[in-house]
């Protein structure tokens, strides 16, 4: 479990992370989302003890990273998949990591199997594709069989097979009861693999909710679109039900405050023919842009 409490990091006059509080729980894939420069990497680096918070705390299973007795066995991380010595083979890289952390060689073979690296395990990392590098980064994160995983943009640059593989892997890891905390700047990607999403902008928490809850916050959520042979008659009937009705240029009505079934029933009672009737799904990208729009504009204005 990862717990951040009023976590703050300042670099000179730049506040990269600003009073951030959230929890990533066991058995759950928690997505960490925000526009470029929102403070995701800085937060992850603080989780892993690579940066010291200016204020506030972040702990893994109740302990600061620096106080963990067996860090690699408690929390596995992939921050920058390219940070591997290019002249080493994948196997040697993993073996060196295992040896310095008292992890048996058999576990190296296991994670090579888990990440599908067998065919390239004997090759130097220098020649690795981005996808193979990501797999190697994930293999290293899994080496200590940790209960918590921190993955920075794990699907970045992967081909469709690789993306599917990462989605399944993180799901399986969470289903085994692990805490999985992974960042992305793509809402739709997280919608496919995360149970909850922590959204930040300018270092501040914008939302900590399930994907479904975020969808419901979208401006288009709860909107019913109806086109009939008698828009004026229907608009009056819906108004009497307490609905909020907005006529559209194409003759349709956009209706809020009543369900799609109620709109259909009202049309029937009013004796108008329904030509089109649909409940608009909230769009994830819209919800995300609505959430983060303010923080991006603020940055673009250079006003901080
Ligand atoms: N070492 C540093 N010194 C000064 N400023 C920094 C440092 N590290 C990060 N920042 C600044 O802190 C802010 C947050 O950066 P961070 O890399 O954490 O964002 P991010 O959400 O990970 O972005 P991206 O998606 O682009 O990686 C940015 O304004 C960045 O310029």
Automatic annotation (TrEMBL):
Pfam families named among the record's database cross-references: ABC_tran
Domain of life: Bacteria
Xref: InterPro entries: AAA+_ATPase (IPR003593), ABC_transporter-like_ATP-bd (IPR003439), P-loop_NTPase (IPR027417)
SUPFAM superfamilies, A to Z: P-loop containing nucleoside triphosphate hydrolases (SSF52540)
Ranges in coiled-coil conformation: none
Key words, A-Z: ATP-binding, Nucleotide-binding, Transport
Gene Ontology molecular function, alphabetical: ATP binding; ATP hydrolysis activity
Nucleotidyltransferase recorded as keyword: no
ABC transporter domain sequence ranges: 2-227
Keyword Nucleotide-binding (UniProt): yes
Family the entry assigns: Belongs to the ABC transporter superfamily.
Name of the protein in question: ABC transporter related
